[in-house]
Amino acid sequence: MDRVREWAQGAYERLLEWELSGTPSHVAVIMDGNRRYAHNRGDDAADGHRAGAETTEQVLEWCQEVGVDELTLYTFSTENFDRPAEQNEALFDLLCEKLTEFADADRVHESEVRIRAIGETDMLPDRVREAVAYADRRTAGYDRLQLNIALAYGGRAELLSAARDVAREVDHGGLGPAAIDTETVEQRLYEGPSRDVDLIVRTGGDERTSNFLPWHANGNEAAVYFCTPYWPEFRKVDFLRAIRTYEHREESWRKTRARRALALVRALGDAEVTEARRVLQRFKGALPSSEREALEEESEADLEYPAD
Q: How far is CA 128 from the centre of its chain?
């Protein structure tokens, strides 16, 4: 029975891979369920985190296979400092071990993976900060795949810190209020992410994004995929389903843009909506065939009977 199940899962994976037509550039993952996975097996929390670390290595490989450019992992939040000290110390030891192991791994260097940490890293123990610096230094010259490890991270704290930096500069006269724009804020966010988030994945069953990358994800209207497996149980099938969710989100977005442009063209007509027509031509392939045919008929009518 197990062999049949493995065969069926492999066949389904191949089907999902064959169906994929686009890949998100930046995937962010909330790796939830390590402790619950361990509890269900009668193990310690540290055993769950270690099993989760193995899944992390697999996800990194899957990202390379499908062409993801950037992967951000929510590894330790600012709220996690409230957990029992013995749990956090065991996790810090594992982080040090895995960061060093990743930084020295041949597969990381062969694949040119850039490892960086984002968050209030000054709050972390010295040994973790040293491991972070080592991984950063060892992979500093790479840019094929960027791996961001979110440590001591909180989205509200990030935005609050950026707002305070802007306020101080305005107060000191180095920046005028009217000059504050998107770039002003982005320059003061945590150094790390190179692009907006296209897809957020959360394991463990909870359907919330937990204050994760609010500027990079919400502003980009990222697709979100929630799934029930705990992080150590996350499979390639789940990963591919998440990518499919992103594709459906992109397809829906393109249809919306095309329909809005079509409505604008129909409402206003000629020269006033040159940009709308350009957008419509770009996205009309996303429309169902019936709408495309109607659009083409309207375009032919416009050419035969131009507006007065």
A: 24
